[in-house]
Write a structure and sequence with these properties.
By secondary structure, this protein is an alpha+beta fold. The protein has four domains: 80 residues, Beta Barrel (conserved putative lor/sdh protein from methanococcus maripaludis s2 fold); 129 residues, Helix hairpin bin (Helix Hairpins), CATH 1.10.287; 93 residues, Beta Barrel (Elongation Factor Tu (Ef-tu), domain 3), CATH 2.40.30; 79 residues, no CATH class. It has nine helices and 19 strands. The strands form two sheets. A six-stranded antiparallel β-barrel has the order 2-9-12-11-10-13. α3 packs antiparallel against α4 and α6 runs antiparallel to α8. The two termini are 76 Å apart.
C-alpha cells in the first residue's frame, strides 16, 4: 500500500513539473512575439535594408567578374621536368705506379688541359730499372753479334767439308735464340721507359680539377680508391631528366629528323635562366616503375655556370603549335560539362566547351567554339551559369584612381557617419559617380562605398582576392579592409 502511494506521488510531481515548463515556454514565446512588434519589425526591416539582397548564398543582379581577351598566336608545347647536372666525362686521376708523391702542379678547382702534368712521383727507382734493362739489352746484343760471326765461319767450313753439318745447325739455333732474347730485352727497355713516364701524372681529359686527395710525401699506388684528384669535364655539361613515356615517340622522331629539341635549365625558384641547350639522346629503356624515360641534354656551359650534381628545373620545348587560340589558364574550368570557359558579351554569360591542347604557365592553348577578341571570365566564374548575367569590372587608369580616390573616400565616409547603412551606400555611390565624372559600374553599388576607391587602386591580384571573399561572405557584408 505504501509503495502504491509513493508511486502516485512521483507521478503527480512529474506532471506538475511538465505543466510549469509549458507555462514558462508560453511566457517566453509571448515575450518574443512582443519584441517583434512594431519596434522589432522596424529593426528587422532596417537590418534587411543594410544587407545585400540575395540572402546567404548570393545576391541579385549581375555578378561582377574579371575577364581577358581570347588571342590567336603561336604556342610552345612545353614539358616541365626536374633534372640534375652531370659532367660530360668524369675521370679519377690515379697513380699508375707506386711511389712517393714529390710534387703537385695543379691548383684545386682550376681548369686543366688534356695531357697537362698534374703531379710527380719519385722517378729514381724507375730510372734505375730502365738502366738495368738497357744494360741487359747491350749484353745480349753483343752475344748475338758473336754468334752470327761464328755462324758465318761454320757455313764456310761446312761448304769445304771441314766441319760437321750438326755443328752448323746448332750454331744457327743459337743465333735464333739470341735474336729472341734481344727482342725480349728491347721490350723490357720499353716497359721500363713507360713505367718511368708514369711517374709524371698527366690529365687524361680537359676539365675542372677537384680537390686533391693526396698530399706531398704520401706514398701513392694504383690501388688507391680516391686517387690523387678527379677531373670533371663541364664543357659541355649534361642535364639528365625524366619525362613521361607518352612523349618518347615525338622526341625520337625529332631526333631522327635531325631537328633540335630546345631545353632550358632554370634555378630552384624558376626565377633565373641558367643555360640553354638541346636534347642529345635518350635512354634505351623505359622505367617501368614510374613510366618515364630518361633524356640527356647538352649545354655549352661556356661560363661554367653549371656544376655537376646541381639541381635544375628543366623546360623541354617539345613542339610549337601554329596559330592556335590562347586563353589565360585561370579561365579554363572543369566540371560536369567537361572542360569549358565562360564567355561574356553584353552582360550575357555563355558556356563554351573546349579541348585543352597544351598549357605553358598562365597561358593555355585550346580548341573549341571560341573566336579571337571574345572575353572569357578569369575570376568570379564560381557563381556563374550558362545564360546568366555578369558585369565586367573595368578599372580606370592608376592616375585617375589616385586623383579622384581621396575625394570619393571622404564623401563616402561622411555619408556613412550621417545615416544608416542603406543611405550610406546610396549617397556613397552618388558621390563616387560625381567625383569620377562618369558612369558608375553597377557592381560598385553592391560593395561598401568606402571600398570603391580602394578597389580601384588595388592591384588585379589583390582586387580579385577581395571580391572573392566578398562574394563568399555569408551575410553579404564586406570583408575586412
Amino acid at each position: 500500500m505504501q509503495n502504491k502511494d509513493s508511486k502516485r506521488s512521483r507521478t503527480w510531481v512529474l506532471i506538475a513539473v511538465a505543466v510549469a515548463g509549458l507555462a514558462f515556454a508560453g511566457w517566453w514565446w509571448k515575450g518574443r512575439d512582443g519584441a517583434a512588434g512594431p519596434d522589432g519589425a522596424a529593426s528587422a526591416a532596417s537590418g534587411a535594408a543594410g544587407r545585400t539582397p540575395g540572402g546567404r548564398f548570393g545576391r541579385s543582379g549581375p555578378q561582377p567578374v574579371s575577364v581577358a581577351t581570347v588571342q590567336r598566336r603561336d604556342m610552345n608545347v612545353i614539358v616541365d621536368a626536374i633534372g640534375s647536372i652531370a659532367s660530360a666525362n668524369t675521370a679519377v686521376v690515379r697513380a699508375k705506379v707506386s711511389g712517393e708523391l714529390k710534387a703537385l702542379y695543379f691548383h684545386e678547382g682550376q681548369p686543366v688541359k688534356a695531357g697537362q702534368v698534374l703531379a710527380l712521383i719519385d722517378p729514381r727507382p724507375y730510372e734505375i730499372a730502365r738502366d738495368q734493362a738497357l744494360a741487359t739489352l747491350a749484353r745480349d746484343q753483343a752475344q748475338l753479334e758473336n754468334a752470327r760471326a761464328d755462324l758465318a765461319r761454320y757455313k764456310d767450313l761446312v761448304a769445304k767439308d771441314a766441319a760437321p753439318r750438326q755443328q752448323l745447325d746448332t750454331q744457327q739455333a743459337l743465333v735464333r735464340q739470341l735474336e729472341a732474347t734481344l727482342l725480349s730485352d728491347r721490350a723490357a727497355v720499353d716497359n721500363a721507359r713507360l713505367q718511368l713516364s708514369y711517374t709524371r701524372v698527366t690529365a687524361p681529359i680537359a676539365g675542372q680539377a677537384g680537390l686533391k686527395q693526396a698530399d706531398l710525401g704520401n706514398n701513392v699506388s694504383p690501388g688507391d680508391v680516391n686517387g690523387i684528384l678527379s677531373i670533371a669535364q663541364t664543357q659541355p655539361a649534361a642535364v639528365v631528366f625524366a619525362v613521361p613515356d607518352l612523349h618518347l615517340a615525338r622526341i625520337r622522331q625529332r631526333l631522327a629528323d635531325k631537328q633540335a629539341l630546345a631545353v632550358q635549365a632554370w634555378d630552384r625558384e624558376r626565377q633565373q635562366l641558367l643555360a640553354q641547350g638541346a636534347v642529345a639522346s635518350t635512354d634505351n629503356a623505359i622505367d617501368a616503375t614510374t613510366g618515364t624515360i630518361k633524356v640527356k641534354a647538352l649545354f655549352p656551359n661556356k661560363d661554367n655556370g653549371l656544376f655537376p650534381n646541381q639541381f635544375v628545373n628543366v623546360r623541354l620545348q617539345l613542339d610549337r603549335l601554329k596559330d592556335v587560340l590562347v586563353v589565360p589558364s585561370a579561365a579554363v574550368q572543369r566540371g560536369a560539362p567537361g572542360t569549358f570557359v565562360y564567355v561574356v558579351a553584353d552582360g550575357q554569360v555563355a558556356l563554351r566547351k573546349l579541348q585543352v591542347l597544351t598549357t605553358d604557365g598562365e597561358a593555355t592553348a585550346v580548341q573549341g567554339d571560341l573566336k579571337p577578341g571574345e572575353q572569357v571570365v578569369t575570376d568570379g566564374a564560381d557563381r556563374l551559369r550558362d545564360g546568366g548575367k555578369a558585369e565586367v569590372i573595368k578599372v580606370p587608369s592608376a592616375g585617375a584612381s589616385a586623383a579622384g580616390g581621396r575625394g570619393r573616400g571622404r564623401g563616402a565616409a561622411a555619408s556613412a557617419a550621417a545615416g544608416g547603412a542603406a543611405s550610406a551606400a546610396l549617397s556613397g555611390a552618388a558621390s563616387a559617380a560625381d567625383a569620377s565624372g562618369g558612369e558608375r559600374s553597377r557592381w560598385m553599388e553592391r560593395v561598401p562605398p568606402e571600398m570603391v576607391d580602394k578597389l580601384r587602386a588595388m592591384s588585379p591580384e589583390d582586387r580579385r582576392a577581395w571580391l572573392q571573399a566578398y562574394r563568399a561572405s555569408a551575410a553579404g557584408s564586406a570583408p575586412a579592409n
